[in-house]
Amino acid sequence: MKQYHSENVPSLLQDQYGRIKRKLRISVTDRCNFKCVYCMPEHPEWLNKQDLLSFEALFQFCHFMVQQGIESIRITGGEPLMRQGIVHFVRDLQALKALGLKRISVTTNGHYLAKYAKQLKDAGLDDLNISLDSLDSIQFKELTKKKLEPVLEGIQAAKDAGLPFKINCVLMKDKNDDQILPMVKWSIANHIPLRFIEFMPLDGDALWSNKDVVSEAEILQILQPHYSVQVIEQQHEPARQYLINGSYHLGIISTITHSFCHQCDRIRLTAKGELYNCLFAPQGLNIKPQLEALVSKQHTPEYEMTVQNLNDLVHPYIWHKAKGFHALQYQQTRKISMHMLGG
Ligand code: SAM
Ligand code: SF4
Protein backbone atom coordinates (compact mmCIF):
# COMPACT_ATOMS: atom_id res chain seq x y z
CA MET A 1 0.00 0.00 0.00
CA LYS A 2 1.35 3.46 -0.95
CA GLN A 3 1.64 5.75 2.08
CA TYR A 4 -0.20 9.06 2.13
CA HIS A 5 2.01 12.18 2.21
CA SER A 6 0.09 15.41 1.74
CA GLU A 7 2.99 17.08 -0.11
CA ASN A 8 2.97 14.28 -2.76
CA VAL A 9 -0.75 14.33 -3.43
CA PRO A 10 -2.39 16.83 -5.80
CA SER A 11 -5.15 19.06 -4.46
CA LEU A 12 -7.72 16.96 -6.34
CA LEU A 13 -9.26 13.98 -4.56
CA GLN A 14 -7.11 11.10 -5.66
CA ASP A 15 -6.62 7.61 -4.28
CA GLN A 16 -3.49 5.50 -4.02
CA TYR A 17 -4.28 3.83 -7.37
CA GLY A 18 -4.43 7.17 -9.22
CA ARG A 19 -8.22 7.28 -9.54
CA ILE A 20 -9.41 10.90 -9.32
CA LYS A 21 -12.83 11.44 -7.75
CA ARG A 22 -15.30 13.39 -9.87
CA LYS A 23 -18.66 12.03 -8.68
CA LEU A 24 -20.23 12.50 -5.28
CA ARG A 25 -23.35 10.74 -4.02
CA ILE A 26 -25.07 12.21 -1.01
CA SER A 27 -27.80 10.43 0.88
CA VAL A 28 -30.26 12.93 2.35
CA THR A 29 -32.27 10.40 4.36
CA ASP A 30 -32.15 6.72 5.32
CA ARG A 31 -35.97 6.56 5.36
CA CYS A 32 -37.96 5.00 2.58
CA ASN A 33 -41.60 4.25 1.84
CA PHE A 34 -40.58 1.09 -0.08
CA LYS A 35 -39.20 -2.15 1.30
CA CYS A 36 -37.28 -3.57 -1.64
CA VAL A 37 -36.20 -7.14 -0.89
CA TYR A 38 -32.65 -6.49 -2.11
CA CYS A 39 -32.19 -3.34 -0.01
CA MET A 40 -34.24 -2.72 3.12
CA PRO A 41 -33.94 -4.82 6.29
CA GLU A 42 -37.10 -6.47 7.59
CA HIS A 43 -36.99 -4.23 10.70
CA PRO A 44 -35.30 -0.95 9.77
CA GLU A 45 -34.08 1.31 12.59
CA TRP A 46 -34.38 4.84 11.26
CA LEU A 47 -31.97 7.57 12.24
CA ASN A 48 -33.30 10.19 14.65
CA LYS A 49 -34.06 13.49 12.95
CA GLN A 50 -31.30 15.24 14.94
CA ASP A 51 -28.73 12.74 13.64
CA LEU A 52 -29.38 13.72 10.02
CA LEU A 53 -27.09 16.27 8.44
CA SER A 54 -28.86 19.57 7.91
CA PHE A 55 -29.20 20.91 4.37
CA GLU A 56 -26.85 23.76 5.40
CA ALA A 57 -24.14 21.26 6.37
CA LEU A 58 -24.76 19.24 3.19
CA PHE A 59 -24.42 22.39 1.13
CA GLN A 60 -21.14 23.30 2.84
CA PHE A 61 -19.85 19.81 2.14
CA CYS A 62 -20.86 19.96 -1.54
CA HIS A 63 -19.20 23.38 -1.82
CA PHE A 64 -15.99 21.99 -0.33
CA MET A 65 -16.07 18.93 -2.60
CA VAL A 66 -16.68 20.94 -5.79
CA GLN A 67 -13.58 22.96 -4.88
CA GLN A 68 -11.70 19.63 -4.75
CA GLY A 69 -12.74 18.71 -8.30
CA ILE A 70 -16.16 17.06 -7.91
CA GLU A 71 -18.14 17.63 -11.13
CA SER A 72 -21.28 15.66 -10.53
CA ILE A 73 -23.54 15.34 -7.46
CA ARG A 74 -26.23 12.68 -7.16
CA ILE A 75 -28.82 13.05 -4.40
CA THR A 76 -30.07 9.73 -3.10
CA GLY A 77 -31.31 7.94 0.04
CA GLY A 78 -33.36 6.09 1.34
CA GLU A 79 -35.95 7.84 -0.73
CA PRO A 80 -34.68 11.41 -1.32
CA LEU A 81 -38.11 12.76 -2.27
CA MET A 82 -39.30 11.95 1.28
CA ARG A 83 -37.05 14.64 2.77
CA GLN A 84 -38.80 17.97 3.04
CA GLY A 85 -36.86 20.81 1.48
CA ILE A 86 -35.30 18.68 -1.26
CA VAL A 87 -36.42 21.00 -4.09
CA HIS A 88 -34.89 24.03 -2.32
CA PHE A 89 -31.69 22.10 -1.83
CA VAL A 90 -31.49 21.31 -5.57
CA ARG A 91 -32.04 25.00 -6.26
CA ASP A 92 -29.32 26.03 -3.75
CA LEU A 93 -26.82 23.65 -5.36
CA GLN A 94 -27.11 25.54 -8.66
CA ALA A 95 -24.75 28.16 -7.17
CA LEU A 96 -21.96 25.56 -7.31
CA LYS A 97 -22.18 25.37 -11.11
CA ALA A 98 -20.17 28.62 -11.24
CA LEU A 99 -17.38 26.76 -9.36
CA GLY A 100 -17.15 23.74 -11.69
CA LEU A 101 -20.14 21.55 -10.81
CA LYS A 102 -21.55 20.22 -14.08
CA ARG A 103 -24.46 17.98 -13.12
CA ILE A 104 -26.99 17.57 -10.32
CA SER A 105 -29.00 14.35 -10.36
CA VAL A 106 -31.47 12.46 -8.17
CA THR A 107 -32.01 8.70 -7.77
CA THR A 108 -35.58 7.90 -6.76
CA ASN A 109 -38.05 5.05 -6.51
CA GLY A 110 -40.45 7.29 -8.46
CA HIS A 111 -43.38 7.05 -6.04
CA TYR A 112 -43.55 10.82 -5.40
CA LEU A 113 -42.32 11.94 -8.81
CA ALA A 114 -45.73 12.86 -10.15
CA LYS A 115 -45.76 15.58 -7.47
CA TYR A 116 -42.10 16.65 -7.77
CA ALA A 117 -40.92 16.19 -11.39
CA LYS A 118 -41.87 19.68 -12.59
CA GLN A 119 -40.64 21.36 -9.39
CA LEU A 120 -37.29 19.57 -9.66
CA LYS A 121 -36.93 20.54 -13.31
CA ASP A 122 -37.72 24.17 -12.46
CA ALA A 123 -35.15 24.04 -9.63
CA GLY A 124 -32.48 23.13 -12.21
CA LEU A 125 -32.17 19.37 -11.72
CA ASP A 126 -30.26 17.89 -14.67
CA ASP A 127 -31.47 14.30 -14.62
CA LEU A 128 -32.94 11.38 -12.71
CA ASN A 129 -32.43 7.68 -12.22
CA ILE A 130 -35.72 5.95 -11.51
CA SER A 131 -35.81 2.45 -10.04
CA LEU A 132 -38.27 0.05 -11.64
CA ASP A 133 -37.81 -3.66 -11.07
CA SER A 134 -40.95 -5.09 -12.63
CA LEU A 135 -43.79 -4.16 -14.97
CA ASP A 136 -46.00 -6.80 -13.39
CA SER A 137 -48.02 -5.08 -10.66
CA ILE A 138 -48.29 -8.20 -8.47
CA GLN A 139 -44.59 -8.93 -8.70
CA PHE A 140 -43.78 -5.22 -8.14
CA LYS A 141 -45.73 -5.30 -4.89
CA GLU A 142 -43.95 -8.48 -3.79
CA LEU A 143 -40.58 -6.85 -4.45
CA THR A 144 -41.23 -3.40 -2.97
CA LYS A 145 -44.39 -3.67 -0.82
CA LYS A 146 -45.81 -0.73 -2.79
CA LYS A 147 -47.97 -0.18 -5.85
CA LEU A 148 -46.58 0.05 -9.38
CA GLU A 149 -49.06 2.65 -10.70
CA PRO A 150 -47.66 5.75 -8.90
CA VAL A 151 -44.20 4.90 -10.25
CA LEU A 152 -45.50 4.68 -13.82
CA GLU A 153 -47.27 8.02 -13.25
CA GLY A 154 -44.01 9.44 -11.93
CA ILE A 155 -42.17 8.29 -15.05
CA GLN A 156 -44.80 9.98 -17.21
CA ALA A 157 -44.47 13.16 -15.12
CA ALA A 158 -40.68 13.17 -15.64
CA LYS A 159 -41.29 12.87 -19.40
CA ASP A 160 -43.88 15.66 -19.35
CA ALA A 161 -41.52 17.91 -17.37
CA GLY A 162 -38.73 17.32 -19.89
CA LEU A 163 -36.48 15.83 -17.20
CA PRO A 164 -34.05 13.30 -18.72
CA PHE A 165 -34.01 9.96 -16.89
CA LYS A 166 -32.75 6.39 -16.93
CA ILE A 167 -34.48 3.35 -15.47
CA ASN A 168 -32.51 1.12 -13.06
CA CYS A 169 -33.67 -2.47 -12.67
CA VAL A 170 -32.02 -4.75 -10.09
CA LEU A 171 -32.44 -8.39 -11.10
CA MET A 172 -32.77 -11.30 -8.65
CA LYS A 173 -32.90 -14.97 -9.61
CA ASP A 174 -36.45 -16.39 -9.54
CA LYS A 175 -37.85 -13.07 -8.28
CA ASN A 176 -37.91 -10.83 -11.35
CA ASP A 177 -35.59 -12.37 -13.96
CA ASP A 178 -38.72 -13.10 -16.03
CA GLN A 179 -38.86 -9.30 -16.52
CA ILE A 180 -35.72 -9.07 -18.68
CA LEU A 181 -37.58 -9.34 -21.99
CA PRO A 182 -40.68 -7.29 -20.98
CA MET A 183 -38.48 -4.49 -19.56
CA VAL A 184 -36.36 -4.30 -22.72
CA LYS A 185 -39.45 -4.39 -24.96
CA TRP A 186 -41.16 -1.63 -22.94
CA SER A 187 -38.03 0.54 -22.85
CA ILE A 188 -37.46 0.28 -26.60
CA ALA A 189 -41.13 1.05 -27.32
CA ASN A 190 -41.09 4.09 -25.01
CA HIS A 191 -37.58 5.33 -25.97
CA ILE A 192 -36.43 5.05 -22.36
CA PRO A 193 -32.81 4.25 -21.40
CA LEU A 194 -32.67 1.10 -19.25
CA ARG A 195 -29.91 -0.38 -17.10
CA PHE A 196 -29.98 -3.78 -15.49
CA ILE A 197 -28.03 -4.04 -12.22
CA GLU A 198 -26.55 -7.21 -10.75
CA PHE A 199 -27.74 -7.79 -7.19
CA MET A 200 -24.93 -6.77 -4.80
CA PRO A 201 -24.24 -7.94 -1.21
CA LEU A 202 -25.66 -4.73 0.28
CA ASP A 203 -29.12 -5.88 1.35
CA GLY A 204 -30.25 -4.86 4.83
CA ASP A 205 -30.44 -8.33 6.36
CA ALA A 206 -27.23 -9.58 4.70
CA LEU A 207 -29.01 -12.51 3.03
CA TRP A 208 -27.23 -11.99 -0.32
CA SER A 209 -25.95 -15.11 -1.99
CA ASN A 210 -24.15 -15.55 -5.29
CA LYS A 211 -26.93 -17.85 -6.49
CA ASP A 212 -29.44 -14.97 -6.31
CA VAL A 213 -27.42 -12.91 -8.81
CA VAL A 214 -28.56 -12.70 -12.42
CA SER A 215 -25.26 -12.17 -14.20
CA GLU A 216 -24.54 -10.01 -17.22
CA ALA A 217 -23.87 -13.21 -19.22
CA GLU A 218 -27.27 -14.65 -18.24
CA ILE A 219 -29.05 -11.42 -19.22
CA LEU A 220 -27.38 -11.52 -22.63
CA GLN A 221 -28.28 -15.19 -23.08
CA ILE A 222 -31.94 -14.35 -22.55
CA LEU A 223 -31.83 -11.41 -24.97
CA GLN A 224 -29.86 -12.99 -27.81
CA PRO A 225 -32.58 -15.24 -29.31
CA HIS A 226 -34.86 -12.18 -29.60
CA TYR A 227 -32.56 -9.29 -30.50
CA SER A 228 -29.26 -8.62 -32.19
CA VAL A 229 -26.92 -7.65 -29.34
CA GLN A 230 -23.56 -5.95 -29.85
CA VAL A 231 -21.22 -4.82 -27.10
CA ILE A 232 -20.05 -1.19 -27.24
CA GLU A 233 -16.71 -0.21 -25.72
CA GLN A 234 -17.20 0.80 -22.06
CA GLN A 235 -16.84 4.53 -21.52
CA HIS A 236 -16.14 6.15 -18.13
CA GLU A 237 -19.37 4.69 -16.77
CA PRO A 238 -20.09 1.70 -14.55
CA ALA A 239 -22.62 0.30 -17.05
CA ARG A 240 -21.38 -1.66 -20.03
CA GLN A 241 -23.40 -0.59 -23.06
CA TYR A 242 -24.99 -2.93 -25.59
CA LEU A 243 -26.54 -1.99 -28.90
CA ILE A 244 -29.85 -3.77 -29.34
CA ASN A 245 -31.14 -4.26 -32.90
CA GLY A 246 -28.56 -1.76 -34.13
CA SER A 247 -30.13 1.30 -32.49
CA TYR A 248 -31.23 0.97 -28.84
CA HIS A 249 -28.63 1.32 -26.04
CA LEU A 250 -29.01 -1.02 -23.05
CA GLY A 251 -26.73 -0.71 -20.00
CA ILE A 252 -25.71 -3.50 -17.62
CA ILE A 253 -24.00 -2.73 -14.30
CA SER A 254 -22.24 -5.94 -13.38
CA THR A 255 -20.34 -5.21 -10.19
CA ILE A 256 -20.24 -8.91 -9.31
CA THR A 257 -19.10 -10.43 -12.59
CA HIS A 258 -17.27 -7.48 -14.27
CA SER A 259 -16.49 -4.87 -11.65
CA PHE A 260 -15.84 -1.31 -12.76
CA CYS A 261 -13.64 -0.65 -9.71
CA HIS A 262 -10.41 0.00 -11.64
CA GLN A 263 -11.97 3.21 -12.99
CA CYS A 264 -14.12 4.18 -10.01
CA ASP A 265 -14.37 7.96 -9.62
CA ARG A 266 -17.10 7.98 -6.91
CA ILE A 267 -17.38 8.78 -3.24
CA ARG A 268 -20.39 8.75 -0.96
CA LEU A 269 -21.76 10.55 2.09
CA THR A 270 -24.42 8.93 4.27
CA ALA A 271 -27.34 10.88 5.72
CA LYS A 272 -25.63 10.98 9.13
CA GLY A 273 -22.43 12.43 7.73
CA GLU A 274 -20.15 9.44 7.19
CA LEU A 275 -17.94 9.51 4.14
CA TYR A 276 -17.44 6.19 2.31
CA ASN A 277 -14.59 5.90 -0.19
CA CYS A 278 -16.19 2.71 -1.60
CA LEU A 279 -19.63 1.03 -1.51
CA PHE A 280 -17.90 -1.94 0.09
CA ALA A 281 -15.57 -0.03 2.44
CA PRO A 282 -15.45 -1.71 5.86
CA GLN A 283 -15.74 1.65 7.61
CA GLY A 284 -16.85 5.19 6.90
CA LEU A 285 -15.29 8.41 8.16
CA ASN A 286 -17.51 10.47 10.44
CA ILE A 287 -17.20 14.10 9.35
CA LYS A 288 -20.48 15.39 10.80
CA PRO A 289 -18.74 17.53 13.49
CA GLN A 290 -16.50 19.16 10.87
CA LEU A 291 -19.44 19.84 8.53
CA GLU A 292 -21.48 21.37 11.36
CA ALA A 293 -18.46 23.51 12.25
CA LEU A 294 -18.34 24.77 8.65
CA VAL A 295 -21.90 26.03 9.13
CA SER A 296 -21.33 27.64 12.53
CA LYS A 297 -17.96 29.23 11.61
CA GLN A 298 -19.15 30.79 8.36
CA HIS A 299 -18.19 34.49 8.16
CA THR A 300 -15.84 34.13 11.16
CA PRO A 301 -12.01 34.21 11.23
CA GLU A 302 -11.96 30.48 12.15
CA TYR A 303 -13.64 29.41 8.91
CA GLU A 304 -10.40 28.83 6.97
CA MET A 305 -9.01 26.67 9.78
CA THR A 306 -12.24 24.63 9.81
CA VAL A 307 -11.93 24.01 6.07
CA GLN A 308 -8.31 22.96 6.59
CA ASN A 309 -9.35 20.49 9.32
CA LEU A 310 -11.85 18.90 6.95
CA ASN A 311 -9.25 18.79 4.20
CA ASP A 312 -6.79 17.02 6.52
CA LEU A 313 -9.37 14.31 7.24
CA VAL A 314 -10.89 13.80 3.80
CA HIS A 315 -7.80 13.60 1.59
CA PRO A 316 -6.00 10.78 3.45
CA TYR A 317 -9.26 8.82 3.76
CA ILE A 318 -9.87 9.03 0.00
CA TRP A 319 -6.21 8.20 -0.65
CA HIS A 320 -6.58 4.89 1.19
CA LYS A 321 -9.51 3.70 -0.95
CA ALA A 322 -9.05 -0.02 -1.58
CA LYS A 323 -8.54 -1.46 -5.03
CA GLY A 324 -12.16 -2.57 -5.30
CA PHE A 325 -15.03 -4.91 -4.60
CA HIS A 326 -13.05 -8.12 -5.07
CA ALA A 327 -10.41 -6.95 -2.57
CA LEU A 328 -13.05 -6.15 0.05
CA GLN A 329 -15.89 -8.61 -0.33
CA TYR A 330 -14.56 -11.18 2.14
CA GLN A 331 -13.75 -8.62 4.84
CA GLN A 332 -17.32 -7.64 5.50
CA THR A 333 -17.84 -7.15 9.19
CA ARG A 334 -20.04 -4.09 8.93
CA LYS A 335 -23.81 -3.84 8.95
CA ILE A 336 -24.62 -1.11 6.47
CA SER A 337 -26.95 -1.55 3.54
CA MET A 338 -27.93 0.34 0.40
CA HIS A 339 -30.70 2.30 2.12
CA MET A 340 -27.97 3.91 4.29
CA LEU A 341 -25.31 4.21 1.59
CA GLY A 342 -27.53 5.48 -1.18
CA GLY A 343 -26.43 3.15 -3.97
N1 SAM B 1 -34.77 5.00 -3.10
C1 SAM B 1 -34.10 5.37 -4.28
C2 SAM B 1 -34.22 4.30 -5.34
O1 SAM B 1 -34.61 3.19 -5.03
O2 SAM B 1 -33.92 4.60 -6.50
C3 SAM B 1 -32.65 5.74 -4.07
C4 SAM B 1 -31.84 4.89 -3.14
S1 SAM B 1 -31.53 3.24 -3.69
C5 SAM B 1 -30.56 2.63 -2.36
C6 SAM B 1 -30.36 3.53 -4.99
C7 SAM B 1 -30.20 2.40 -5.99
O3 SAM B 1 -29.60 1.29 -5.34
C8 SAM B 1 -31.49 1.89 -6.61
O4 SAM B 1 -31.38 1.91 -8.02
C9 SAM B 1 -31.60 0.47 -6.11
O5 SAM B 1 -32.24 -0.34 -7.03
C10 SAM B 1 -30.14 0.10 -5.90
N2 SAM B 1 -29.93 -0.99 -4.96
C11 SAM B 1 -30.38 -1.09 -3.69
N3 SAM B 1 -29.96 -2.24 -3.11
C12 SAM B 1 -29.21 -2.88 -4.04
C13 SAM B 1 -28.49 -4.12 -4.05
N4 SAM B 1 -28.45 -4.92 -2.98
N5 SAM B 1 -27.84 -4.46 -5.19
C14 SAM B 1 -27.87 -3.66 -6.27
N6 SAM B 1 -28.50 -2.47 -6.32
C15 SAM B 1 -29.18 -2.10 -5.23
FE1 SF4 C 1 -36.13 2.28 -0.73
FE2 SF4 C 1 -34.58 2.62 -2.85
FE3 SF4 C 1 -33.94 0.80 -0.99
FE4 SF4 C 1 -36.02 0.36 -2.54
S1 SF4 C 1 -33.88 0.54 -3.20
S2 SF4 C 1 -35.99 0.12 -0.30
S3 SF4 C 1 -36.80 2.37 -2.85
S4 SF4 C 1 -33.99 2.98 -0.71
From TrEMBL:
> Which positions in this protein are listed as binding [4Fe-4S] cluster 2?
C261, C264, C278
What EC number is given for this enzyme? 4.1.99.22
Listed under catalytic activity are:
GTP + AH2 + S-adenosyl-L-methionine = (8S)-3',8-cyclo-7,8-dihydroguanosine 5'-triphosphate + 5'-deoxyadenosine + L-methionine + A + H(+)
Q: Which keywords does this chain's UniProt record carry?
A: 4Fe-4S, GTP-binding, Iron, Iron-sulfur, Lyase, Metal-binding, Molybdenum cofactor biosynthesis, Nucleotide-binding, S-adenosyl-L-methionine
Residue positions annotated to bind S-adenosyl-L-methionine are Y38, G78, S131, M200
Positions annotated to bind [4Fe-4S] cluster 1? C32, C36, C39
> Which Gene3D superfamilies does the entry link to?
Aldolase class I
MF terms in GO: 4 iron, 4 sulfur cluster binding; cyclic pyranopterin monophosphate synthase activity; GTP 3',8'-cyclase activity; GTP binding; metal ion binding; S-adenosyl-L-methionine binding
UniProt record similarity statement = Belongs to the radical SAM superfamily. MoaA family.
This chain's protein is named GTP 3',8-cyclase
Q: How is the cofactor bound?
A: Binds 2 [4Fe-4S] clusters. Binds 1 [4Fe-4S] cluster coordinated with 3 cysteines and an exchangeable S-adenosyl-L-methionine and 1 [4Fe-4S] cluster coordinated with 3 cysteines and the GTP-derived substrate.
Q: How does it assemble?
A: Monomer and homodimer.
Q: Which Pfam families did the record assign?
A: Mob_synth_C, Radical_SAM
Task: Specify the pathway.
Answer: Cofactor biosynthesis; molybdopterin biosynthesis
The record ties this protein, via InterPro entries, to:
Aldolase_TIM, Elp3/MiaA/NifB-like_rSAM, MoaA, MoaA-like, MoaA_twitch, MoCo_biosynth_MoaA/MoaC, rSAM, rSAM_sf
- PROSITE patterns from the entry? RADICAL_SAM (PS51918)
Gene that codes for this? moaA
Q: What's an example Gene Ontology biological process for this entry?
A: Mo-molybdopterin cofactor biosynthetic process
Q: Which residues bind GTP?
A: R25, R74, T107, K166, R266, I267, R268
Cofactors required: [4Fe-4S] cluster
The family database entries (CDD domains) matched by this protein are listed as: Radical_SAM
> What residues does the Radical SAM core domain cover?
16-233
Q: What does this protein do?
A: Catalyzes the cyclization of GTP to (8S)-3',8-cyclo-7,8-dihydroguanosine 5'-triphosphate.
